[in-house]
Design goal:
CATH superfamily: Carboxypeptidase-like, regulatory domain
CATH class: Mainly Beta
CATH architecture: Sandwich
Radius of gyration: 24 Å
Distance between the termini: 71 Å
Shape: flat
Number of helices: 3
Strand content: 25-35%
CATH topology: Immunoglobulin-like
């Protein structure tokens, strides 16, 4: 028994030595260079938007902006909104407006040329996509809890739960308006 235990310990020690030796001998990997993007944080694991409405506006005076980009773009990996638009590579001050499904719109102020990723927390709860999380959204989720309605499943976990109601109550407020005073598309 003691001999078997000794052999087992020897194999463990050799395995650990080989593992750490391999890690030291392999070439160091260089981290990938991040392209300009907005990385959405505070996202429930299963919430995976495929598109985002993105508006880029150049600051022309201290309070005036000129829209230079206004499109719906694909979201990468459920949480990354690419900012590879040519206008964001020319020097200047910009406002970037973003609207994701069932979330309040947000705005970021940026100085171009952009070379990095920025993060922004997501505020889910806009069930009717009017860019306001209010009592209407709370009521829709409360009714959805009783009827098991799929359209109030904010976190995309497959069921209308009290977590969806919590997200709506925690994130109440008005999202950022578009710079051209039009309504966000539903």
């Amino acid at each position: 028994m003691a001999r078997l235990l000794g052999i087992l310990i020897l194999f463990i020690v050799l395995g650990v030595a080989i593992f750490y030796g391999w890690r030291l001998l392999r070439p160091a990997s260089t981290p990938p260079v991040a392209s300009p993007a907005i990385k959405v944080t505070n996202r429930p694991v299963r919430y995976c938007p495929t598109t985002a409405q993105l508006i880029v506006a150049r600051v022309v005076q201290s309070s005036k902006v000129q829209v230079v980009f206004d499109e719906t773009i694909p979201v990468r990996n459920c949480d990354t909104i690419p900012l590879a638009q040519p206008d964001l590579q020319r020097p200047g001050d910009f406002r970037v407006y973003v609207k994701l499904p069932k979330a309040r719109a947000f705005q970021l102020a940026m100085t171009a040329p952009l070379v990095t990723q920025v993060t922004h927390p997501l505020q889910l709860g806009d069930v009717n996509n009017d860019n306001v999380i209010d009592q209407t959204d709370i009521s829709l989720v409360e009714v959805g809890l009783k009827t098991k309605a799929a359209d109030v499943d904010l976190d995309n976990d497959g069921a209308s739960t009290v977590l969806d109601l919590s997200l709506t109550r925690l994130n109440q407020g008005i999202g950022v308006a578009r710079p051209d005073d039009r309504a966000w598309a539903s």
